[in-house]
């Protein structure tokens, strides 16, 4: 299979225009760390952003960073760390879960709306994304957004590109707002709570004025023999100390909370972020389920009544990572019925290619939304060149 790796946006526009002329379908990739995510490829050539590298703008005082799409994510994060700054939304590293190699890229963060545990406080990647450059299916270079947040009328291409999984265009440059690294991060841990009690505790903490930046629950057997309910607080040291004390008082009837700090706390949240608790066994399918936080235990219980499964919760219970047997449909009918009853959506993150070809990987859309999705795809990629069928069959 041919691989194109343009070194400039101008070169990328020429490649896409030529591909459109011969109806050559293109698989868009960055570091190729998420190749096993989504429906199986239906393409004839690969278009990689790996030649589009370099940080193009960094203004620490304005808290804005821009880089070409193929720039390694780690390179951007290292530059930010030198100035005591960070990406707000704690992007996931999918490699542990998917068993992939390669290097995560800055553009892919925007392309998949990559957001981790801090989303409950700082929002998703799309909420910090303020500018994009991309090449559409006609081979045209498009710029949208800029260096500041602003309201827009009409179609917001910046937000549209976030989470489009390369189906609308090849991102060539992205711009994000950044935040200062916090002086102190600490995690309170309650042990022994069942799922329902843990979600109640997390809901109480999130509803308090003490500003959590992480809220997760690990049932017994997930990362340890005892169930652990995790609450992260970040900020200036004195503020963190005060809020920890207040949270202990708020939750005292739920048990004595222990405190984790430093690398132990950071490592625990990396494991939550990357879902490494479910990385093994490799043959298991893994679902990412978003639902109403208070109904998370209802969803997992409904699945567990019909199918062997393991799971943990993030986002105060609003995000469920669930592993189950990949046989047959990887529990698709059971999972989607449980989610339908509670409200939300489910994405099949990991499964054999045969399963991903046979079942909807992303949440099926109602007919009106599917017509809208198809129309947007046709407007930006009229020949259907980019990642055909990656998200939805025929789109």
UniProtKB/TrEMBL annotation:
Pfam families, sorted: FAD_binding_4
A GO term, aspect molecular function: FAD binding
PROSITE patterns linked: FAD_PCMH (PS51387)
Keywords, in A-Z order: FAD, Flavoprotein
Domain FAD-binding PCMH-type: 1-181
Domain of life: Bacteria
Database matches in PANTHER family: D-LACTATE DEHYDROGENASE, GLYCOLATE OXIDASE SUBUNIT GLCE
Protein name: Glycolate oxidase FAD binding subunit
Organism, as annotated: Methylorubrum rhodinum
């Amino acid at each position: 299979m041919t691989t194109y790796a343009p070194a400039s946006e101008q070169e990328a526009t020429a490649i896409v225009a030529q591909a459109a002329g011969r109806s050559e379908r293109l698989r868009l990739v960055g570091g190729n760390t998420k190749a096993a995510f989504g429906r199986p490829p239906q393409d004839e050539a690969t278009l990689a952003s790996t030649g589009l590298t370099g940080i193009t703008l960094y203004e620490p005082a304005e808290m804005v960073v821009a880089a070409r799409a193929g720039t390694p994510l780690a390179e951007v994060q290292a530059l930010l760390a030198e100035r005591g700054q960070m990406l707000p939304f704690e992007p996931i590293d999918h490699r542990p879960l998917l068993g992939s190699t390669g290097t995560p890229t800055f553009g892919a963060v925007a392309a998949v709306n990559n957001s981790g545990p801090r989303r409950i406080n700082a929002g998703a990647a799309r909420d910090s994304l303020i500018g994009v450059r991309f090449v559409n299916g006609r081979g045209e270079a498009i710029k949208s957004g800029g260096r500041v947040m602003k309201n827009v009328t009409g179609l917001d291409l910046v937000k549209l590109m976030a989470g489009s999984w390369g189906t609308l265009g090849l991102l060539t440059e992205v711009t994000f707002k950044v935040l200062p690294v916090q002086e102190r991060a600490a995690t309170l841990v309650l042990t022994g709570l069942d799922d329902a009690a843990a979600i109640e505790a997390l809901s109480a903490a999130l509803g308090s004025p003490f500003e959590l930046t992480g809220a997760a629950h690990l049932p017994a057997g997930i990362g340890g023999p005892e169930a652990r309910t995790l609450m992260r607080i970040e900020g200036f040291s004195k503020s963190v100390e005060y809020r920890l004390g207040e949270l202990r008082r708020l939750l005292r009837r739920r048990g004595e909370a222990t405190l984790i700090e430093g690398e132990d706390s950071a490592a625990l949240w990396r494991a939550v972020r990357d879902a490494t608790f479910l990385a093994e066994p490799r043959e298991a399918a893994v679902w990412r389920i978003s639902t109403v936080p208070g109904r998370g235990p209802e969803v997992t219980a409904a699945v567990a009544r019909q199918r062997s499964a393991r799971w943990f919760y993030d986002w105060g219970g609003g995000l469920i990572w669930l592993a189950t047997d990949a046989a047959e449909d990887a529990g698709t009918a059971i999972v989607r019925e449980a989610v339908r009853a509670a409200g939300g959506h489910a994405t099949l993150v990991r499964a054999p290619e045969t399963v991903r070809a046979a079942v909807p990987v992303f949440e099926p859309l109602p007919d009106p939304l599917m017509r809208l999705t198809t129309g947007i795809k046709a407007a930006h990629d009229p020949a259907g060149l980019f990642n055909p069928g990656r998200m939805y069959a025929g789109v």
